[in-house]
Specification:
The complex is a heterodimer of chains A (about 350) and B (about 260). Chain A is mostly helical and about 350 residues long. Chain A has 17 helices and no strands. Chain B has a single domain, classed as SGNH hydrolase (Rossmann fold, 3-Layer(aba) Sandwich), CATH 3.40.50.1110. In chain B, a hairpin with a 5-residue loop joins strand 2 and strand 3. The chains are: A mainly alpha (about 350), B alpha/beta (about 260).
């Protein structure tokens, strides 16, 4: 995934991918939102961790496809095998569980309607999976996006799209891939823009320390704004064209991380490489272990939050890694069709 | 061949559906909360045509204050609310089931809490009789003055999840209530609004009980007759908005269209 032209490895992006998946997993922990008064700070840092993933996806897409010949059907075929097939596999079990527990009745849906709805919106049972239907829309429009990168006005499009991303919110419950696609578009294009390079990127690179300092400061200023504000996190039509403080924070965070990793962490770090290599598997699997942990935790009397957090981390992360390892051993090279890695 | 009568009927149906005219229907309301949601307010309202309640066996019987399931022997705001809903055409018949218990914190409605037994009894009657609800009104909060906001939110989500498993996805209309006996908790007030903002598929904005000053209360906490009527009006305004809000949220989540799939 992080392999680049000339066989070089983009270690900075590999490391960043590891950080992104850890953020996504942590953001789905129930314990991190119970940290008393600090819960709002944790929420600001972790919420919308998907933004990192979207940015990385855009960057890698351009890096791997933008400079070389791009075969659309070949690209879609690969994405179908390595992204959509695992999504079908995991969704099948999630939806089956939903039907067994008659979740469809809770939403007032027939079983068929529930199955179709779950497949299309993605994250009805396993919350994290809403991402896949959305990212598939990016795959579908990829030639158009590549076309834009070759035009002089690409920078204007990126700025407009990023502005929209920070002035809009996720759809309710992440249950509308089209609206999510528009909401996250800015960060995908920003990733492509960063990968394309050019005058603006050269300027930013030449002053990367200043950019990092400004980004970090901006992030903390927005944290203060967030703590004193209404703390809205979702609602596409309710809050359209209103400032999304979390996403603005993520904009600074992404820029900060990009230059931090490019300047100082562009080297192989074994644990990060390992996590990055199985990141897609972790993405698919961790939601299930989180659900199991939540069920199990309801029978546990854990009063200390640190203990609860440690248990959740050990349970969700370790079981996710173990299950991926077992799947890879059993399936060998075919594991990518099932668990995405 | 379509007869003239059938053609007229078809035309009327299509015309009404285009106008989006809804016919007033029977509305069932479950009320959960503390004393203010129960019979602990000053005035007892008498029977009103079209306003009913579920009795302890789940049968529909005429309603009047005090309501059968709820605490205390005074009155509530549910009779004037029911009357308002019928007069406005929002419902042709309203059946309430207020199960509030005085002084309860939200945590006390969870497993092991002192209100859990009553909740369970009510839910088992609901299940046995196959009763469905159109709204759950959550009117509670002043008993939680001092409870950290995130704990309150977490507990209310747990309660919602528990009740949802038994009665399905019903809009929960959450009142802002954190003022009582001269004490006011801004954090609980804030979190009651945050819950609505952050889970719009499940929670809907209810009335602001905190906005009623002592002119509307007889003991600086519970409502006098003027307060009960005012509160009923505020509840009505909130409930009136739920339908439209629910539809827009369901459209955003695509549920609106998938609910139309018949098989």
């Amino acid at each position: 995934m992080s392999k680049v032209n000339g066989g070089e490895f983009l270690y900075s992006f590999e490391n960043m991918r590891a950080v992104a998946i850890l953020f996504v997993i942590f953001s789905h922990f129930s314990s991190v939102y119970k940290f008393g008064e600090s819960a709002d700070i944790v929420k600001f840092i972790l919420a919308d961790a998907t933004t990192l993933f979207v940015f990385i996806s855009g960057y890698l897409f351009y890096y791997l496809s933008g400079n070389k010949g791009f075969g659309y059907l070949d690209y879609l075929g690969k994405k179908f095998k390595f992204v959509v097939l695992p999504f079908f596999f995991f969704s099948f079990f999630a939806i089956l569980a939903g039907l067994v527990f008659r979740e469809n009745e809770l939403y007032g849906l027939t079983p068929v309607a529930y199955m179709l709805w779950s497949f299309i919106v993605g994250g009805v049972v396993n919350g994290a999976m809403w991402f896949i239907p959305m990212i598939c829309l990016f795959f579908l429009v990829s030639p158009m996006l590549l076309f834009c990168t070759k035009r002089d006005w690409f920078f204007v499009v990126v700025v407009a799209a990023v502005l929209f991303s920070v002035y809009s919110f996720r759809p309710v419950g992440n249950q509308n891939p089209v609206l999510s696609f528009f909401h996250f578009m800015g960060f995908y294009l920003m990733g492509m823009f960063f990968a394309r390079g050019g005058v603006v990127m050269d300027l930013l690179r030449s002053r990367s320390k200043t950019v990092m300092a400004v980004s970090a400061s901006g992030f903390f200023v927005l944290l203060v704004v967030w703590l004193g504000g209404d703390q809205v996190v979702q609602g596409y039509f309710d809050y359209i064209l209103q400032p999304n403080i979390i996403q603005m924070g993520k904009l600074f965070f992404v820029v900060f991380l990009f230059f931090l990793f490019e300047r100082f962490l562009s080297k192989k770090i074994k644990p990060m490489s390992y996590i990055a290599n199985i990141s897609f598997g972790l993405f698919f699997v961790h939601g299930f272990w989180s659900l199991v942990f939540l069920k199990a935790a309801s029978y546990l009397e854990v009063s200390r939050l640190s203990t609860y957090f440690s248990l959740e981390f050990l349970f969700v992360f370790c079981f996710s890694v173990i299950s991926i390892d077992i799947a890879k051993r059993i399936l060998g090279a075919r594991s990518r069709y099932v668990i995405g890695c | 061949m379509l007869s003239v009568a059938n053609c007229v009927r078809l035309f009327v149906v299509i015309f009404l559906s285009l106008l989006n005219i809804s016919v007033a229907k029977e509305v069932h309301i479950l009320v959960i909360g503390q004393s203010i949601s129960s019979n602990c307010n000053q005035n007892k309202f008498g029977k009103v045509d079209g306003v009913y309640q579920f009795d302890l066996n789940g049968n529909v019987v005429a309603a009047s204050d005090p309501f059968i399931w709820a605490d205390c022997n005074g009155g509530s705001m549910w009779m004037p609310l029911g009357e308002r809903m019928i007069k406005s055409g929002l419902a042709s018949k309203v059946v309430f089931m207020p199960i509030g218990i005085g002084g309860t914190k939200v945590s006390e409605w969870l497993v092991g809490g002192r209100a859990f037994g009553k909740l369970e009894t009510a839910l088992s009657v609901i299940a046995k009789k196959g009763i469905t609800f159109d709204y759950v009104l959550w009117h509670q909060g002043s008993s939680d003055i001092g409870t950290p906001g995130n704990i309150y939110q977490d507990d209310l989500h747990k309660l919602y999840s528990y009740v949802r498993k038994k009665i399905g996805v019903v809009p929960w209309v959450v009142a802002r209530h954190s003022r009582c006996y001269g004490r006011y908790d801004e954090k609980i007030d804030g979190v009651q609004q945050k819950i609505v903002t952050n889970a719009p598929l499940f929670f809907y904005a209810g009335p602001d009980n905190n906005s009623l000053d002592d002119r509307f209360r007889f003991d600086s906490c519970h409502l006098n007759k003027t307060g009960q009527i005012k509160m009923a009006e505020l509840w009505f305004e909130s409930i009136e908005k739920v339908g439209q809000r629910k539809e827009s949220i369901e459209k955003e989540t695509l549920l609106y269209w998938f609910k139309k799939i018949p098989y």
